[in-house]
Amino acid sequence: MPVRGGLQLGAFMTTKSLHSSRRYEHKYPSCVRTYVTLAIYSESRDVRSLTRALGVRPSRSITAGQPISSLGAQRNAKWNGWFFSSRRKCLSRDLRAHLDFVLDRIAPAKGTIERLLEQGCEAHLSIFWESAAGNGGPLLDHRIITRLAEFPLELHFDIWFASC
Phi first, then psi: what are they for 152, rounded to 5°? Predict the structure, then answer.
């Protein structure tokens, strides 16, 4: 099967995004669902302060002391949490489309994220990916890896094999 730019052609439907260098496999056959969430935690900055600094409204947030459920147990949140997610906003099953969705929105705040980390905040990109059949997996091509490297963020993968 011919390959061009890290993308296998012929086997999957590919479409270009608004950016001509981006090709996605929106019906990614080995994936049931995927999404990406930028998570920022702070002991000292509240959610409103983080939102003002980042210039992006969070998808959800947590306030320190708020009751939360974690792994089936109830507890109080220790830190303020600010979360921006592609979940239910980007309808593709191609992880790259979700990464671009989040990175496009936070790119103007890259310097702010760096300063927040220097001030003691914690931040990472959480990647959820659910396998359709237990084989195959998400594709991270050179373009998206290069783009991710521009941000001082760890990647946390949550990979499910629920249907296997």
Answer: -85, 55
Residues 25, 14: contact at Cβ < 8 Å? yes
Whether residue 17 contacts residue 24, with contact meaning beta carbons closer than 8 Å, is answered with yes
d(Cα 147, Cα 10) in Å, to the nearest integer? Answer: 26
What is the pTM (predicted TM-score) of this model?
Answer: 0.84
Locate the domains of the chain by residue range.
33-130+141-158
Q: How far apart are CA 35 and CA 96, in angstroms?
A: 10
Tell me the one-letter amino acid at 48.
Answer: R
Q: Look up residue 103 and give its two tokens.
A: 């990175």
* Range from 17-26, 41-50, 125-134 carrying the lowest mean pLDDT: 17-26
Q: How far is CA 34 from CA 25, 62, 71, 85, in A?
A: 13, 22, 20, 11
**Residues paired with residue 84 on neighbouring β-strands, in sequence order:** 38
Cα gap 117→42, rounded to integer Å: 9
